[in-house]
Amino acid sequence: MSRLILLFLSIPFVLSAAPKCPEDFVRVERTPTVKNNHTSDWCFAVLALDRAGSRDWARGLCANYNYTLSIPESLEEFRLISAYSKGVTAAAERDFNKTITNLLIAVDGEFTPKCKAKMVRNWRYKPKKDKGECGLHQNLFSFDSSNTDPTFALDRNLEGYPNGRSESGFPGGISIARYASCLAMDPDRYDSAEFKYEDITNHTLHDGFFHLTWCDGSEGEEQNMFGVLCGGPPQ
Ligand SMILES: *[C@@H]1O[C@H](CO)[C@@H](O)[C@H](O)[C@H]1NC(C)=O
Ligand SMILES: *[C@@H]1O[C@H](CO)[C@@H](O)[C@H](O)[C@H]1NC(C)=O
Ligand SMILES: *[C@@H]1O[C@H](CO)[C@@H](O)[C@H](O)[C@H]1NC(C)=O
Ligand SMILES: *[C@@H]1O[C@H](CO)[C@@H](O)[C@H](O)[C@H]1NC(C)=O
After folding, report:
1. Which residues of the chain have a pLDDT value below 70?
2. Predicted local confidence at residue 219, as pLDDT
3. pLDDT tens per residue, range 144-156
4. Which residues form the signal peptide (predicted)?
5. Contact 150, 141 (CB under 8 A)
6. In whole angstroms, how far apart are CA 91 and each of 46, 63, 69, 118, 144?
């Protein structure tokens, strides 16, 4: 008898166990649209990782939470992630024994191989001008998650774009060009010592606060890639 009652009592309890974000993740409300697959509720965290410059390491870290790489969908999310990243810089400096002056965060998005091939064949290629398949807002980038609308990020990814070109010359007139093709976020640096998560009204934005970075952790920018933005729905 007592067992029956217990069972009965536990049913409403189980039903009311609302999904929540894993520890250290921040919860945000999103406006559901077709472009973010009707997502209204999202969790994200910036996690410190020594090898964040490598796309495979970055995605592998997020997979531990059953999440994927993520990207801010709005200015509000961008500011929240920027604020969050301050603690990450401190943790990464301590854990990796490095001075990090300007933390870069690996975020979702990289060139599709097809469009990258187009760019490699034609160094004059301008994704912003392409109205076809490899246009900036068409299929130039591929995203691990379909629950974020990338429009906000892509519209701010314009400085020196495409960037990170590197060219190697070989005998016989052979030259090989390579391009940075993964997205990284350069957080806003806030201007007040009292700044807290709750107080995000006075942020100023830099121009061009998304970058293209190398996907394999090699070359220049990996020096400061010590954060990964992971996200997913509450679970
Ligand atoms: C969109 O969301 C629904 C429900 O959460 C999910 O089943 C579906 O796989 C998602 N679509 C894509 C393209 O990820
Ligand atoms: C991971 O997420 C998928 C899709 O949302 C879900 O089907 C699966 O059960 C989750 N796995 C774990 C271990 O939470
Ligand atoms: C941290 O880095 C500094 C400078 O590279 C080095 O001298 C020091 O031994 C390192 N500390 C640890 C605990 O590895
Ligand atoms: C915002 O920052 C500016 C410059 O640091 C400062 O002068 C201003 O008082 C701040 N505004 C608020 C509302 O805190």
Report:
1. 1-16, 157-163, 189-208, 219-223
2. 65
3. 999 999 999 988 7
4. 1-16
5. yes
6. 11, 21, 20, 40, 26
Handedness of CA 88, 93, 96, 98 (dihedral sign): positive
CA–CA gap between residue 59 and residue 146 (Å, rounded) = 15
Q: Output the pLDDT for position 207.
A: 44
Pairing of strands 104-111, 225-232: parallel
Check: CB of residue 43 under 8 Å from CB of residue 19.
Answer: no
pLDDT of residue 161: 59
End-to-end CA distance of the chain: 34
Cα(37) to centroid of ligand 1, in Å?
A: 6
Domain ranges in the chain? Answer: 43-232
| CATH fourth-level superfamily of 43-232 | Mannose-Binding Protein A, subunit A (3.10.100.10)
How would you classify residue 11: left for phi > 0, otherwise alpha for psi between -120 and 50, otherwise beta? alpha
With a 6 Å cutoff on the Cβ, whether 199 touches ligand 4 is no
Give residue 158's pLDDT.
52
The reply to whether ligand 4 has any atom less than 6 angstroms from the CB of 202 is: yes
pLDDT for residue 69: 98
Ligand 4 contacts CB of residue 167 (under 6 A): no
Question: Which residue type occupies 90?
Answer: A
